[in-house]
């Protein structure tokens, strides 16, 4: 499996965070940058007992999927924004499977990622991985 390229601006941003609280704030500040669900399009609703998330997937060409989404949790939305920014990044165009956890490990925010899995992010990751595995 080809490794995923993470945009330099995300690496630079998180490399400046020297505490968990700064990383947490930086994650939340990424929420507004989430690729928006296109007007008039339906997104898959994923919910658990704590949060609701919406994932939109579009097949762009034979090897490329585009992801967008939303969530009622600013933390989940920020993590989704980071994940979708990396997956949608042009250098990753021909990759059809991703190691999602690697994105967050590289940015040094794996603790936030792992703690958010039971709060709804796990459903989003499952949906993204499923879409990537079934992409033709």
TrEMBL record:
InterPro entries: Fe-S_metab-assoc_dom. Pfam families: SufE (PF02657). Residues 12-127 form the Fe-S metabolism associated domain. This is Fe-S metabolism associated domain-containing protein.
């Amino acid at each position: 499996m080809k490794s995923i390229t993470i945009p330099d601006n995300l690496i630079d941003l998180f490399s400046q965070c020297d505490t968990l609280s700064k990383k947490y704030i930086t994650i939340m500040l990424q929420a507004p940058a989430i690729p928006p669900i296109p007007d008039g399009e339906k997104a898959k609703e994923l919910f658990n007992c704590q949060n609701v998330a919406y994932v939109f997937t579009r097949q762009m060409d034979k090897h490329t999927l585009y992801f967008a989404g939303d969530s009622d949790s600013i933390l989940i939305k920020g993590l989704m924004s980071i994940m979708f920014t990396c997956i949608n990044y042009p250098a990753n165009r021909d990759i059809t499977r991703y190691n999602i956890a690697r994105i967050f490990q590289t940015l040094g925010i794996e603790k936030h990622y792992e703690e958010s899995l039971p709060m709804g992010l796990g459903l989003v990751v499952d949906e993204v991985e499923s879409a990537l595995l079934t992409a033709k």
